[in-house]
Amino acid sequence: xxxxxxxxxxxxxxxxxxxxxxxxxxxxxxxxxxxxxxxxxxxxxxxxxxxxxxxxxxxxxxxxxxxxxxxxxxxxxxxxxxxxxxxxxxxxxxxxxxxxxxxxxxxxxxxxxxxxxxxxxxxxxxxxxxxxxxxxxxxxxxxxxxxxxxxxxxxxxxxxxxxxxxxxxxxxxxxxxxxxxxxxxxxxxxxxxxxxxxxxxxxxxxxxxxxxxxxxxxxxxxxxxxxxxxxxxxxxxxxxxxxxxxxxxxxxxxxxxxxxxxxxxxxxxxxxxxxxxxxxxxxxxxxxxxxxxxxxxxxxxxxxxx
Length: 306
Ligand SMILES: Nc1nc2c(ncn2[C@@H]2O[C@H](COP(=O)(O)OP(=O)(O)OP(=O)(O)O)[C@@H](O)[C@H]2O)c(=O)[nH]1
Prior knowledge:
Elements: H1 5-8, E1 18-25, H2 32-40, E2 58-64, E3 67-72, H3 83-98, E4 101-107, H4 114-122, E5 129-135, H5 142-155, E6 160-163, H6 172-181, H7 198-213, E7 224-234, E8 237-246, H8 249-256, H9 261-278, E9 281-290, H10 298-304
Helix pairs in contact: 7-9
The structure holds guanosine-5'-triphosphate (GTP).
């Protein structure tokens, strides 16, 4: 038997450190993003687009003394009508097969429908624990909520059903506890200092944006966004990877300048400011991208503040 020492010693559950991956799924508008923010937003939330151990995009990591909960993104699941739809669904299943907990979200203020049934039928037969989250409970009365909980319970044999409101914060803590409870015993998956918290990343993005706009505000008024993709702490040095998004190729040329001279200058000015902010030495890696393809991705657009 490969039992953990702590478990065989009969220690209380509280002593066990748990860590793992979870994702929220559900039809569009079910409240997945808001819930993710409610869980990680007020805590020491850290985000990154460069997953270290898995292929999926990490939305945030919740650190607790007893657990680490890594929330990952999945693209929406659709009834596959096209090859692309099929490929997307394959990707969804790939992510699902790698997570420990799947939270299927059902908005309390809308009846359970065909889309919900489809998703519920797809989440079975996985190693993941599947829990139901009834979202937006602040929008309905007790009778409606009770009916919704019954309808959801009939869809699938969920491990748990948790009603929450991301807006009022009602039961968000409890949902987190439930998710942690279903995480495997595991050492910490991500060290605390590999990634950083979002507010800090926003400030850094703003400093880069300031530096990039200097002298060219007339040509590039609002059409630029900066996204800090990754921050890595390596000894005394912090490596920061950031993307500058512009709307057109012509704007990209302006930002980069002749043979990259302007971008280099932007980088060194931004770096000086970031070093002041962090009080640490910084290596800054800037990439200029045209946002065209990003405009079709609402999540990315939201992240960029458009
Ligand atoms: N009143 C209330 N509104 C909520 C709550 N959670 C989410 N909403 C609202 O519901 C809408 C959809 O929420 P999102 O979090 O964007 O939903 P989503 O599932 O991520 O949507 P997609 O990205 O389209 O899949 C937004 O307008 C939210 O403000 C809640 O707990 N209470």
